[in-house]
Amino acid sequence: MKVKFKSVTVAVAAALLGVASAQAQNVKIAMIEGLSGPFGGVGQNQLKHFQYAAERFSGKGANSGVTVEIVPMDSKGSPQEALALLKKATDDGIRFITQGNGSNVAGVLIDAVNKHNERNPGKEVVFLNYAAIDPDFTNSKCSPWHFRFDAGVDMKLEGLTNYMKDEKSIKNVYIIGQNYSFGQQVSKFTREFLAKKRPDVKIVGDELHPLGQVKDFAPYIAKMQAANADAVVTGNWGNDLALLIKAANAAGFKGRFYTFYAGVIGAPTAIGAAGADRVSMVSYWHPNSDQSQFESIYTGFKQKFNEEFYTVAAVNAVRYLVAGVEKAKSTDAAKVAKAIAGMKMSGASGETIELRAADGAMQQALYVVNWTKAGGPGVKFDAENTGYGFKTVRYMMPNEASAPTTCKMPKRP
Predict the structure, then answer these.
(1) CB neighbours of 271 closer than 8 A, spacing ≥ 6?
(2) CB–CB of 156/337 below 8 Å?
(3) Which helix (H) or strand (E) holds 327?
(4) DSSP secondary structure, 157-176, as one string
C-alpha cells in the first residue's frame, strides 16, 4: 500500500510558495531520551521510530527539500542528565528537541527550554513532545515552545472510562501506577471520571510504586485479589507493565486490565494468550485500525527492524517539522513554531488532525481496543508474533476525543 499522504507537506509548501520545493535545508532533532537503563529498550525502539520517520518523511523519501537528521542523546531516563544534554544540544546549534518517555523528564525540559529562549533571543529551541502526556503541559504549564503529539491523560481516560461505563461487569476497580506526575494524573482522572459515569463502582485500591524499580509485582497482584478487584486501570509502561501483566498471569488473576501502553515493545509478549479478551488499551492509533493510512509504514518498519511500529507521534513530529520549515521558508525555530501552531494534516487513519494553537496539543482520533486472537475480522496483524493483536471496540473522532484547555498561552514571537 502506498502512503497517499506522504506528500502532504510538499503539497502545502507548493501551494504556499508556488514552487515544487524550496532550497535544500537540513534540520537536526536532538532526541533526549533514556536509551539505556530500566527503560532503555523502549527508548531504543522509539529512536528507531524517529530514524525511520526521518527516512520516510523528509528529504528524498518525501520528495522534500527539507532533510531531518535525528541526533540521539542518552539521558538514561534522568531529568538531571536530560538538562545537561539540552545544554549540549543548544551549544551544538540544535534548535529542535524531542522526548517522551517520562513526564518527570518532560516537565524539567519544558521549563529549561522556556528559560533558554528567554535568555537567548534568536537562538530559540522548540520541544516536540511525542509521549509525555501530563495534562498540565498543555494547561497550567503550557508554552509556545512546546508541542505535544500524543493525547493527554485527560483525553485518554475520557475515552477509556466512556468504554468502561458500559461494561456492567465492572464492580471493583484497582488503580496502580508509577510514582511520578503521570501516574498521579492517571489516578486522579480515573477516580474523577468513574465517579461521574459509574458512581456504583468501588475503587478498592489506589497505589503508586517506584518508577522502574519493582522486579516482582506478585505482592501487588495479591492485593488486587484480596480486594476482589475485577478491573485494573494502569498507566504503566515498559518493563513496569510487562512485569505487572506477567505477575497477573502467573497468579491466575482473572480481572480485566485497562491500559495506555499494552502495545509498547515487550508488553504484547508478556500479555500473550493468557491475556486474551481481558486486556484493553486506549490509543490514538493501532495497526488494525479500520482505515489505517499507515499500513505500509507499519509493515516496512517491522520488516526493517523486526519490531512493532506503534508510535505514530514520532512520524507526525517529523511531518510537522518538515511542513513547518517549508511553510516558514526557514529552519529558525521561532518561525517554525509559529508555522506549525494550528496546522492541520491528514492523520494515520484518514481523519484530519490539528496541532491546536491554543495549547500546542494534537487533536486526533482515539481508539479503545481489546487484545484478542489474530486472524479474525478486524485483527489482520498480530503483535510481536504472539498470534494475538488489538481489535477496535470504540472509535472517537477528534472532536469527540478533544479536551478543553485552561492554557493562557504567552504570545508567540
Answers:
(1) 245, 249, 262, 279, 371, 386, 388
(2) no
(3) helix 312-328
(4) HHHHHHHHTT-TT--EEEEE
Radius of gyration from C-alpha coordinates of the chain: 21
Q: Is the pLDDT of residue 227 over 70?
A: yes
Of the candidates 246, 281, 288, the one whose C-alpha atom is nearest the C-alpha of residue 264 is: 281
**What CATH number labels 154-283+365-401?**
3.40.50.2300
pLDDT at 2 exceeding the cut of 80: no
Query: Domain residue spans in the chain?
Result: 8-151+294-363, 154-283+365-401
Instruction: Say if residue 282's pLDDT is above 70.
Output: yes
Share of the chain above pLDDT 90, in %: 89
**How many Cβ atoms sit within 10 Å of the Cβ of residue 253?**
19
Distances (CA, A) of 251 to 244, 245, 280, 289: 11, 10, 19, 32
Average pLDDT over residues 101-121: 97
Say what the pTM is: 0.92
Q: Which CATH class, in words, describes the domain spanning 8-151+294-363?
A: alpha beta
Identify whether the C-beta of residue 286 lies closer than 8 Å to the C-beta of residue 304.
Answer: no
The cell for 125 is 529551541
> How far, in Å, CA of 325 to CA of 338, rounded?
10
Helices and strands of the chain, counted as H and E runs: 13, 15
pLDDT at 13: 42
CB under 8 Å to 367, separation ≥6 — which residues? 282, 283, 284, 285, 286, 289, 392, 394, 395, 396
Q: Which of 322, 411, 290 is nearest to 358 (CA)?
A: 411
DSSP E strand stretches across 101-226: 126-129, 146-148, 172-178, 202-209
- Answer yes or no: are the C-beta atoms of 289 and 380 closer than 8 Å: no
Q: What is the 3-state secondary structure (H, E, C) of 344-384?
A: EEECCCCCEEEECCCCCEEECCEEEEEEEECCCCCCCCCCC
